[in-house]
Amino acid sequence: MHQPNFCAECGAQLKRKGWGVWKSRNFCEDCVRREGKNGVVWSLTAIAVIAISAFALGRYLRPAPPPLIIERASNSPLSDLPVNANEPARKSNHDDDSTKDPSRVAQSTDDPVYICGARTKKGTPCRRRVHFAGERCFQHKGMPAMLPVDKLIIKGAGSSKQ
């Protein structure tokens, strides 16, 4: 183990009375008394200040998060108008007018239901339901259908569920 022969601060020769891990210091008795515990406290304080300032600077220089953009499909039934917060709340789905008007119920059951029809990994046409003929499900966007358009219609399936 390395034991210095001279003080690192003043250069005075170090005299040791024995060997031990606790005796292998770099400073003489005078310099240790002069520095005291302030040297250790000062160095720990300096390290803490540097670490905290580096953290604060990193937080300050961090770029702002990107704005939240919620996109929806172009064929969405929702309106493009902004929502008015002062407007009273609408009726719940349980009190919907379509349940009271039988002509609307009949119209919704007569709406055709289409399937995606694109080729799957298995080699069969995709059976996911889509809104209109020629549309593909999320997994098969941009792929051609395996079946003709007249075969993509599900007969006897209405959009109302009971």
Can you give a write-up of this model?
With 162 residues, this protein is mainly α. The protein has a domain at 110-157. It contains three helices and three strands, in the order αααβββ. The protein has helices at residues 29-35, 38-61, 102-110, and strands spanning 113-115, 129-130, 153-154. Strands 2-1-3 form a three-stranded antiparallel sheet, with no helix packed on it. The longest helix is centred in the first third of the chain and has 24 residues, at 38-61. The relative contact order is 0.08.
Instruction: Count every beta strand, where a strand is a DSSP E run of 2 or more residues.
Output: 3
Q: Can you count the helices?
A: 3
Helix coverage percent: 10-25%
**Structural class by sheet pairing and helices:** mainly alpha
Principal-axes geometry comes out as: elongated
Give the strand line-up of the largest sheet. Answer: 2-1-3
Give a quick account of the main beta sheet: strands, pairing sense, barrel closure.
3 strands, antiparallel
Distance between the termini: 86 Å
Question: Would you kindly provide a brief summary of this structure?
Answer:
The chain is 25% helix and 4% strand. It is mainly alpha-helical and 162 residues long.
What's the structural blueprint in terms of helices and strands?
Blueprint: H1 29-35, H2 38-61, H3 102-110, E1 113-115, E2 129-130, E3 153-154
Antiparallel strand pairs: 1-2, 1-3
Which features characterize this protein?
single chain; 162 residues; mainly alpha; three-stranded antiparallel beta sheet; 3 helices; elongated
